[in-house]
């Protein structure tokens, strides 16, 4: 079994070819760095046009031309399941923390296709907070803000600016980063920015990861490539849980995670037959800015699917 995975959900156009046993035969990512720099973030219409410039036909036409089955993949499911590609011993059920540009999800993956959302952000995702912080600090926007912030934070003192930890008093597992974002913006506006960049970066990174850690304590259990977050997670789970962190290249958007999730579905017999030529020609993608993965956790409903 050999699967081609195509990823075009946001600003990266990515493709990969992966064998059924998880061997990655090829992977490429074309990022929209110029657009990110020019617009200071993702502009959906431009992003769509940029995808069309680097990928001449998309999945349905390829499947139709080569008479191959096709599988539609949920972007966040792919982010979650790529952990099973790098760790064959990761069996269902498991908990997944998905922290990226548009999402902040803590999910219980019960089995393939069955996900329960334990927590989500009530406003911004952590990646959004990182990207905005990087923008306000005037960091290089040719790549996303998170990695630039992580680099600077290494030489900053996280204790220097006392940002408060968001949602600390809440008992549920939801996240919130809009307040932290405002704290960071006010701090930047009121200080000599150049001297304070590493400090603000370190403090923002420290407070934002604190919230994640609080939630994981409660449940015993893109941004996921952040070494600082990983190290702190590792400290928590060391005692009796196993932490699986895919390599950074598989945490940000990539074709491998899509191909792998396709393999998982294909092996369970979940795929569509090759589209007919006219179906492929007329195919209209169901584009949704928000598309929940699984259902929300409801207290006392132990058998929720
Ligand atoms: P989503 O997956 O939620 O739809 P997306 O696909 O746009 O969002 P990804 O490509 O999955 O986002 O992840 C990009 C996000 O991860 C950006 O917000 C970026 O700043 C952040 N990020 C990437 N690397 C790091 C890092 N090392 N430290 C912190 N944040 C990071
Ligand atoms: Fe993503």
Question: How would you concisely characterize the structure shown here?
Answer:
The protein is of the alpha+beta class and 305 residues long. It has twelve helices and seven strands. A four-stranded mixed β-sheet has the order 4-5-6-7, with helices on one face. It has a three-stranded antiparallel β-sheet with strand order 1-2-3.
What does this structure look like?
The chain is an alpha+beta fold and 305 residues long. The protein is built from 12 helices and 7 strands. Helix 4 crosses helix 11 (255-267), helix 5 (126-136) crosses helix 6 and helix 5 packs parallel to helix 7.
Task: Give short descriptive properties of this protein.
single chain; 7 strands; 12 helices; alpha+beta; four-stranded mixed beta sheet; globular; three-stranded antiparallel beta sheet; 305 residues; binds fe (iii) ion; binds adenosine-5'-triphosphate
């Amino acid at each position: 079994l050999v699967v081609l995975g195509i990823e075009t959900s946001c600003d990266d156009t990515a493709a990969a070819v992966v064998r059924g046993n998880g061997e990655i035969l090829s992977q490429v990512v074309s990022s929209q760095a110029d657009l990110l720099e020019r617009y200071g973030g993702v502009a959906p219409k431009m992003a769509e046009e940029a995808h069309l410039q680097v990928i001449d036909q998309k999945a349905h036409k390829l499947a139709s031309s080569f008479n191959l089955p096709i599988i539609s993949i949920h972007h966040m499911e792919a982010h979650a399941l790529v952990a099973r590609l790098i760790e064959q011993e990761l069996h269902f059920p498991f908990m997944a923390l998905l922290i990226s540009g548009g999402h902040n999800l803590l999910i219980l993956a019960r089995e393939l296709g069955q996900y329960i959302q334990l927590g989500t952000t009530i406003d911004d995702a952590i990646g959004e907070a990182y990207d905005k912080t990087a923008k306000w600090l005037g960091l290089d926007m040719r790549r996303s803000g998170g990695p630039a912030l992580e680099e600077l934070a290494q030489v900053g003192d996280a204790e220097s600016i006392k940002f408060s930890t968001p949602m600390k008093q809440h008992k549920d597992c939801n996240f919130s980063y809009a307040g932290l974002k405002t704290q960071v913006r006010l701090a930047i506006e009121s200080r000599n920015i150049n001297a304070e960049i590493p400090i603000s970066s370190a403090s923002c990174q420290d407070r934002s990861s604190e919230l994640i850690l609080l939630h994981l304590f409660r449940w015993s259990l893109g941004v996921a490539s952040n070494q600082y977050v990983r190290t702190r997670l590792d400290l928590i789970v060391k005692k009796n849980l196993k932490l699986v962190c895919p390599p950074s290249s598989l945490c940000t958007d990539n074709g491998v995670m899509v191909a792998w999730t396709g393999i998982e579905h294909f092996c369970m017999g979940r795929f569509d037959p090759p589209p007919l030529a006219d179906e492929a020609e007329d195919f209209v993608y169901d584009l949704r800015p928000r598309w929940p993965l699984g259902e929300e956790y409801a207290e006392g409903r132990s058998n929720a699917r």
